[in-house]
Amino acid sequence: MPNDRTQRNLALLLNGLPGWLLMLAGLVLVAVSLLADNLGLGGQPGIVGWKQWLGAAVGLLAALGGGSIVRRLTSAQPIASGDLADTIRPIGTEFPYYDSAASRLPFVHELRQLLRYRHLLVNLVARDLTVRYKRSVLGFLWAMINPLLTMIVMAVVFTQLFQREVENYPIFLLSGLLLWRLFSGGSTIAMRSILGSAELTRKIYVPSGIFVAASVGSAAVNFVFALLPLVLLALATGVTPRLSWLFLWVPAVEVVLLTFGVGLIVAALAVFFADVLDIYDVLISAYFYFTPIIYPATILPAFLLTVQNFNPMYQLIDWFRQALLTGALPGLGSLALTTAIVLVVLIGGWSVFSRLADQFPYRT
Amino acid sequence: MQAPTVVSLEAISVRYRVPTEPINTLKEHVIRLFKGTRPGYREFLALDEVSFGVTQGESLGIIGRNGAGKSTLLKVISGIMRPTLGRVQVLGHVAPLIELGAGFHPELTGRENVFLNGAILGFSRAEMAAKLDGIVAFSELEDFIDAPLRTYSSGMKVRLGFAVATDIDPEILIIDEVLSVGDEAFQEKCRQRMQQFRTKGTTILFVTHSLDKLTEICDRALWLEHGQIRFLGEVGEAVDAYRQAMAPARAQKPS
Q1: Do both B80 and B49 map to the same domain?
Q2: Which residues of B are less than 8 Å from A117 in CB distance?
Q3: Are residues B184 and B80 in the same domain?
Q4: For A293, which DSSP code?
Q5: What is the value of pTM for the model shown?
Q6: Nearest residue on chain B to A99, judged by CA atoms?
Q7: CB of B215 within 8 A of CB of B223?
Q8: Is the CB of residue B11 less than 8 Å away from at least one CB of chain A?
Q9: What pLDDT, in 10s, does the model give residues B13-33?
Q10: B123 shares contact with chain A (CB less than 8 Å)
Q11: What is the ipTM of this complex?
């Protein structure tokens, strides 16, 4: 039947979607890298510098990877299924039907399961938050006070150092720290989430991605709480509300997506390798000092400054700060490049995670 | 008319790879990668070509010594673990009653835990809200439902867990050694609820070491040994055969 065939082809095309997306993101990265000067990312017009070649190479690799994923996903052969499903049809189809041999693509399958269990996601996030703040006297206020106190300590220490380079250093610092806490806190909790939920997942089926999502979700909610003191402090120090504040959600959402992507990778790795927990702690604190969060990017040598173009956390923090403090919005080049990197990490992370998810019960 | 099959296992094997040396660090793996040596593995078959079917409304008991593959079998059926080889098909909601209250959290109240546990079993807040009264009534925890779970006695926790797991009315219920909980009165309530399930046509998979309970609840029994089916048939025969096989082992034990 032609209709069946069209449907099948459409399904195959959709199955290849993650691959197509990765390919597209890779190609965008290639284009952005090579056209950096035209997009206002810096670089000399007409000359392609080494970092542009680097970006292009990474983009090309992603595109090739995407292509191979498309090939693998769309060549999956469906297994003839339905023995039990056929026998039960007379009773009614409202029953869920599980077939371990059904052909499925981990990327799509795990995503579907994640959506099916969204109630659980909400419950897990709510649980994390209630448990964390319930027994403390100040309750949810802690979510706001904690980063504020850190900020005050650091502001006292570093203001002397950077007040000449940075205008309104406390707000500069706090906004950077909040986004950083979202990223580092979220991904670190996510890393332990699969191992930590083993007690539960040994007994009942729950899609494992939900625990990573819940970790990142809790970090995101904490971030939102902490925005209140940030805004109050900004107003108190003489920052005027601007229209550009409407843009603030973009870097915040991208940090959440990046955190989720990184969290998926480290969570999956942590199941297989015990030392990932320690290695990641070291890596993340190195990344913290590498990224201009407590210091302004302007003190970096030119070479490191250009590298920061490819550092998604710095770019996102910078977008956030600029929109908050000066009202400047990021250039199109930075917007495209950083978003492409975030999407590559997110899609790559989900691919790795969903591919390994079947093995988690064998390891935990 | 014969009842339809709702659980079907075809040549199910589950193979764990047990490393011969304890290497599970990334560092070790990187070093090995450079050296070109591959880590050695010993393969362990937790289930070895197990095939059987369970029909709707049937109560199947699963017996066997520790490490025979009972828990792995349940994991395969409840969809936690995909078998290494073979095909398993399951029709209907599967609810496990394995060590009650797996998703409970001590800091949350009983009520919050009911919603959390419901969500773990795949139910929305609204669906759980509709069941809440029944759950509270069955567990007899009306006065404590808003107290944090850490203040509960272990018996209270078990009652709440049992009430949640059985109130969601699954088509297939998996029970792993939990019926011997609570006081006499609650035991009786559990027994009644199990009978309700049986008359309602719920399929029950029951893992236990208590052979008396097995004969009370089950129609058929499956005896696993070293990941293979040693016996599958009428519960009385299975229990007799199992007792006989275990008798020498028991006799050898110093009393």
Answers
A1: yes
A2: 119, 122
A3: yes
A4: S
A5: 0.81
A6: B89
A7: no
A8: no
A9: 999 877 666 666 777 777 777
A10: yes
A11: 0.84
